What does this fold into?
Amino acid sequence: MLRFFRILRKKLLEEDNIRKYFWYALGEILLVMIGILLALQVNNWNSERQLSESAEINLELLAKDLTEDRESLLALIEIYENDLDNALLTLNMIKGVIDVSDRVSEYLVGFQLEYNFYPRNSALNVLLNSGEISVLDVELQNMISQYYRAVDAVKERDEISNIFIRDKYELHIFEEYSSLYSKENTFPVIGEFYQDDTRDILIFDTEKFLADKKLEALLFARYYQIKTLINVYNSALESLSDLQKSIE
It folds into this structure.
């Protein structure tokens, strides 16, 4: 093909036909441009195909991350639902709806525990950093965004709850109810630590507990914080389930 063009170019020059040579040169330029455009298009197709293939692999990894996230969310929801029941029981003791339970010491200590949801982001980060997310179906992209927005909401509520525990609730327990840290407490970690304590058992001050309005307010706040956490966690779990179905 190149030899043909060289012969044709030589012939036109020998004929001294400037007009024909001009059209020939223009045609040759157009052919070169078309060739470049075709090469670029083929390269783009290859790049998109490679991105799509890599995205499929990383979607499988994302599905595995989501399975682990689901297990973590369910485990934390179970913990919070148990805490919610215990918070309601404790508040009902203060209100006089039910008698003060022997387990009240366990409940009061348990509300100090902080929890955090740690999502798996490795596959998502690869999809984002590589640009592979752009080749995914738009609806799937939206579902991914929706789930990780829900995750951000979970992390935000976790932080709000944990700051309240550290700055408000825990301080009051340490200052007013240090006697909870004794062998009479049925909370597992405390009971195990003090099981060999030879000192006299400290009696829980029921009257102080029932009259402590600050503690009541703190417990009331914890109760509604936990309810909010459960709702936010369930919302994230719902988004996760929708995303899993879309990936499948």
Remarks:
- The chain has a mean pLDDT of 85.
- The two ends are 50 Å apart (CA to CA).
- Helices lie at 2-15, 18-95, 104-110, 122-130, 138-176, 188-193, 206-211, 213-247.
